[in-house]
Automatic annotation (TrEMBL):
Pathway: Cell wall biogenesis; lipoteichoic acid biosynthesis. The chain crosses the membrane at residues 39-57, 69-87. Its main location: membrane. It is found in: Cell membrane. Keywords: Cell membrane, Manganese, Membrane, Metal-binding, Transferase, Transmembrane, Transmembrane helix. This is Phosphoglycerol transferase. Residues 161-457 form the Sulfatase N-terminal domain. It holds the Pfam family Sulfatase. The keyword Manganese applies.
Amino acid sequence: MLYYRELSDFLSFNTITSASKVSKGLGGSATSLIQAHDILYGLDFIIIAILLFTHFIKIDPRPMKKLTAVATTMLGIFLFSFNLTVAESNRPQLLGRTFDRSYIVKYLGLNTFLAYDSIKTVQNNQVRSEAVGTDMDDVLADVQKNYAKPNKTYFGKAKGKNIIIIHLESFQQFLINDKVNGQEVTPFLNSLYDDKNTMSFDNFYHEVGQGRTSDAENMLETGLFGLPEGSLFTKLGSDNTFQAAPAILGQKEGYTSAVFHGNVGSFWNRNSVYKNMGYNYFFDSSYFNKSDDSMLGFGMKDKLMLSESVKYLEQLQQPFYAKFITVTNHYPFQLTDEDKDDFTPPDTDNSTVNGYFETAHYLDNALKEFFNYLKSSGIYDNSMIVLYGDHYGLSDSQNTDLAPVLGIDSKDWTDFNDSQMQKVPFMIHMKGLKGGINHTYGGEIDVLPTLLHLAGINTKQYVQLGTDLLSKQHNPIVIFRNKNFVTPHYTVLKGNSDQPEVYRNKTGELVDLSQNPILKQKVKKWQEYVNVKLKLSDTINNKNLLRFYTPSGFTPVNPKNYDYQNEIQKLVQTRNDLGLKSTSVYSQNNNKSTTSLYTTDAPELNGDRTYIDSWSSILKEDSENKSNNSTSNK
């Protein structure tokens, strides 16, 4: 209870067994967390002890009948199985995906969670205990063989620039430049997509598995795939060694890194994984003003999260690597009436499809407000802004209802059309960047090497399974987690089966491989490549092989050096310690906040900027303290 009160997470098996390593000096901290009403949680023990001591109740020394024991045990098994069945019906793949420990505790209880976590820990430890350093040999050989040299034209183009990642929740490519009832669904993103300073990729795919959003983040940050089942973040993220973007950028180019997300830190186990990746700061929902009307199912509404986050963003030392995770465009795609404007969604028989266009439109407005602030504050001029869709929003089962909106007859919808729905936006926007629509085929696994090369960091020594999208040596085979794949000319479904479905990308027609032996042989060769890549990734992740390999000049991340408590105080302390050397936007603005430049029409605020500008009172108090100290020193 005390652990959750402080860290918003549950005690895991690893935490308990490692308690001796971190327990020194924590007694006082734990005591300070105790509240008066906590005695109620242990009141039953006190009452039972008193009743036993006074002999009001007595222990029955007689042995229990075997039939009663068996019946009681069977009843317990039945009740647990029934509970698990109900939980699975309400939250499918509860134990398979485990995207948040809170859900397991909520549905099955603390005891079940601890038992489950203990079993998974033992299984993981067994696999890892069998790993040896030589297991990296095949990995390194493959990485070096498939390394793609950076494009000289773009290498270092963003060197020293801030890197801002905008994670577009459930956002699919077909929304770009799409119109409904004569209205653009995402007018701002459309303008950005076609901007001369934006390099937009129209053949970019998500490659997530069951980990969905966390898989997308994992590929973005580490250049490795997610797991075939469940989420790497929740299964292995707390213990794995990573060569992730925050650590690489921080060590090579002095970047400060931060994540902004309007959900609880434990969701997808982010509060643990980000430490292993080397993120300096993590601003979760505890750093934002939460109210009943500001939250949706998966966190704070985008307009509110983005507008309130800038008071922290302006305090980060530059250059910074900052990731913003949006949530409003998440299933079930519902907005309150107050959040809707004059946009008219499609009128299909599927309310989920209709709502998807509304929430996408809302996200578009939120991004427009954010970009306006970036430009007004001057951050825009010194930043490379990357936007990407993490995964599909509408599932295959809803695509036939979507088809008429896209001008396609539902009867003509095929598996190939489903595969085309896996395209998501990928845009790199920077003032002075030579933009345009890039038709290169690629996926989320290719993002990290692309960004690092733009930042002037050669990726040859790092273990990354994707290749730079801008490199002439880029491999354009897009790998899906289920072993399907896409090439520039063909889409291959039912991957790894004896009779895969092969479609021509240009026409969508199904190819008869029996009539085309040359193509059949190519498909087999491509499939082998796909299988090898996925197997390598799984081996690296499951055996935690990166602990055996440290690139030259790279220091493995020690998660104990990171703590996401008291982030505000850390920002102020860093700025004060640096003094005139501080590079934060706030410092460069003559120690004045830029939050007043942020304009939003979020109805929840109703003109009240208290929480957007709330940093100002903290800074004022800090300034007064420094002034008083200076006077006292004189």
